[in-house]
Amino acid sequence: MFAAAGSVAANRSDWVALECPYIASPLQTACQLPFAAVCPYGNASCGCLPGYQNRRCTECEVGYFSSARACRLCNPVLQYLPIAWTIVVIAYAAYLLLVPGSASGVLKVLVFFGQSLLLLVQNARVPWPEGLRHLLEGTATTGSLSATALECVSPGISMASRYGVYTGTPMLLLVVCAAVYVVQRLRGAEGAYDKLVYMSLSMLMTTYFSVSIKALSGFSCTLTDGYLNAYPWIECSVSRSTEFPVILALSVVCFVVYTVGVPLVSAYQLFKHRSSLGSDPAIATRLGFLYGPYRPGCFWWEYVVILRRLVLALAITLVPFTQQQLESAIVMAVLVVSVALQHAFEPFATRLENRLEMLSLYTLLLSFLGVYVSETSTASAAGTLQWLPVAVIVLTAVVAAVLAVMTVLVLVVRLLPKFANTRIGSALIRPDSTLLSVQRELQRSLLDAKADDEL
User: Fold this and answer.
1) Residue at a domain's end among 327, 343, 366
2) What angle do CA 120, 201, 110 make, to 5 degrees?
């Protein structure tokens, strides 16, 4: 973390008037400024801190990478981060292959909670407690598309090239799925196409939040001077900028094909085959990720979650930076509506998953509300609310730990079926669910077909 030579005024709205944005907290800027001073771009007397360069000191120098709005020094370990990502993707593909057609509601809850928390902490205009930022710093470095340290792997890589990697992530995941499909076909495995569809949907939906945010950031330009909000050194001009046309084109393609296209196509397939969800083993394997964790009456709930993610992404990326209250109102409205809908429908198939979803939504809502109240409170009330940031850190850390432990238990139960009929296994995955019954039917059909071939 860099310590700025100067700091901006405590009132967070004041920093907008400065030419240098804050890093990590409202009291730190990337520029070497005297207290509350305005440093126009181009003024030689106002320099950038080490690691920062270009307009408003918002771009990282060579040898540094961007993470959570700050430029951090590259180290040799980060050069292996793409390899780590590759291993994670392959491991996830192997899990999907070993347990085809299964879908964990606990895993879905954990993914949404983690992605939403990272999004709000890194991008929302409400300053979160410094302790929570440090707690999530390591997670952000390995779990955020904007912190894949591509600058360390390929020093001097342009922002347009990095943006191409970010928005091209879905295509890279599909290549992995296609490679697995080819191997399965060469081995003569049964149901290879159904497994291909399932793996593709699982990976595309898991990365939906992060990639959609990247796609939307290419449309968000400042209203005052016409620069990208996410990359303030790039002017929103097709004629005067060489990188903006590339970023804009990639944003359009990714938004249309991925952010809008994937949910529409998958929803069409799900509703088209809704009468066969509980009877056709092939459909159960192919579309199980979309409806498996939910009870039959809420087989469509995945698209409620997608809409929730999309609205949050729109609020964070497209609302003008000066409209902090509007952004906060949208975020809180989304979370309040999500809590109300969860209470009304209880869409998950197990009681445990419904309770965990409620816990994660309440935690996000109360944490965001607590930080917002702490920030907007008057000076006289601030003294009595000193406990609030600590409470936010403790609450989010405890809930994240609970969700992580439950996810590990679910993965163990699914990979080791002998635990499915235990008391813990019954609470985690409900062995008598429609999806598991269809899976058993599929396994029996394959065994019977194999026995007939042997005869």
Assistant:
1) 366
2) 35
pTM of the model: 0.79
Instruction: Give the total number of structural domains in the chain.
Output: 2
| pLDDT tens column, 266-320 | 999 999 998 888 778 888 888 888 998 898 899 999 999 999 999 998 888 887 7
Asked if the structure places residue 65 within a domain, the reply is no
Q: What percent of the chain lies above the pLDDT cut of 90? A: 22
Query: What's the CA gap between 361 and 350, in Å, rounded?
Result: 17
- Counting every residue, how long is the chain? 455
3-state helix, strand, coil in the chain (%, to 5): 65, 5, 30
Dist CA 27 CA 7 (whole Å): 5
Q: Is residue 9 within 8 Å of 18, Cβ to Cβ?
A: no
Q: Which amino acid is at 229?
A: N
Tens of pLDDT along 390-406?
A: 777 778 778 888 888 88
Could you tell me if 306 and 163 lie in one domain?
Answer: yes
Q: Are residues 31 and 102 in the same domain?
A: no
Residues 86 and 46 in one domain: no
Q: Which residues lie below 8 Å from residue 357, measured CB to CB, with a gap of 6+?
A: 105, 109, 342, 348
How much is the pLDDT for 431?
43
Contact yes or no for 277/284 (Cβ under 8 A):
yes
Quote the radius of gyration of the chain (alpha carbons, Å): 24
